Structure formats: C-alpha cells, structure tokens
Amino acid sequence: MDILNDPDALTRALKGHLILGSFAFLLLQIIQVVILIIPGGVTTVVGFMAFGPILGFILNYVGIVIGSIILFLLTRRYGKPFIMLFIDEQTYAKYEEKLASSTYETVFALNMASPISPADILVMITGLSKMSFKRFLYIILLCKPISIVAFSYFWIYGGQFIRSLL
C-alpha cells in the first residue's frame, strides 16, 4: 500500500509496461474513486508521469468517470449507511445541508471542475439528491477533464512556476 503514497515508485512500476500498466492504472483509478482511502491526487499525477499527457489524461478520465458512476450508483442503492462508511456524521451533516440549496447543481458542477474539491464525497452526497443519473453523468463528463488537467499540471509544473516567480 506504500507504493500508492509514492508517486515516483508507482510511476516506475507502471511506466515500463504499456498494456498491463495501462490496465492496472485504469483499475487503480476506478478503485481509488470508490474506496476513499486511496489518495486520488497521487494516482492522477502518476497517470501523466507514467503514460504522458495524452494517454495519461485518457486513462485518468475514463477511470475517474467509471469510478464516479459506480460510487454514485452505490450511494443511490445503499443510501446514507454507505456514505457513513467513509465519512463522519459532522462531515455528512455539512454536505447534506447543501443538498437542499437551489444552487446545489451549480455548486456540484463547479466542484467537479475544481482540482481541489472533495469530489468523491460530493459524488456520494449527490447520489442522495434528486439529480437524475443523466444530469450527473453530463456534469461529470463535462467537468472532470478540467480538474484532471489542472490538478496534474499544477502538481507536475507548479513548483517550477512558483520558484520562477521568486
């Protein structure tokens, strides 16, 4: 499990194996969305580092979308007890409050586009909402590319950019 917290080690493990590595990475991305204990930020960056910007983006996007769909549907099926496996009551109450807002759909879309939002928690909370699956999928498909690219490029190049400003 330590390899999941070490982007360099994970990149080395996947990089030399295009087909098997791609499949393993795609599976890892799906799992990291559904099981919130795996750090998604690390795996997202690894996709770009191990497979380059195009294949890395595609694998990230497909894995995160599939994982988000699974997470949404699991929450629809099992409700609050499923969410409570991953978050505490206080966190749940904070997000549940937002569901009643008339602007929740907009807030959800903006968070899905943001590289620094608790996306997986919001996907679960949205599974409890009245949002249709079709609308959920539309928002995920449209907004996730923005957060994937922004997070990965900031993580990979952000430090260099900040140093150049100093």
Automatic annotation (TrEMBL):
<keyword id="KW-1133">Transmembrane helix</keyword>
<dbReference type="InterPro" id="IPR015414">
    <property type="entry name" value="TMEM64"/>
</dbReference>
<feature type="transmembrane region" description="Helical">
    <location>
        <begin position="50"/>
        <end position="74"/>
    </location>
</feature>
<keyword id="KW-0472">Membrane</keyword>
<feature type="transmembrane region" description="Helical">
    <location>
        <begin position="136"/>
        <end position="156"/>
    </location>
</feature>
<dbReference type="Pfam" id="PF09335">
    <property type="entry name" value="VTT_dom"/>
</dbReference>
<dbReference type="InterPro" id="IPR032816">
    <property type="entry name" value="VTT_dom"/>
</dbReference>
<protein>
    <recommendedName>
        <fullName>TVP38/TMEM64 family membrane protein</fullName>
    </recommendedName>
</protein>
<feature type="domain" description="VTT">
    <location>
        <begin position="38"/>
        <end position="154"/>
    </location>
</feature>
<feature type="transmembrane region" description="Helical">
    <location>
        <begin position="18"/>
        <end position="38"/>
    </location>
</feature>
<keyword id="KW-1003">Cell membrane</keyword>
<comment type="similarity">
    <text>Belongs to the TVP38/TMEM64 family.</text>
</comment>
<keyword id="KW-0812">Transmembrane</keyword>
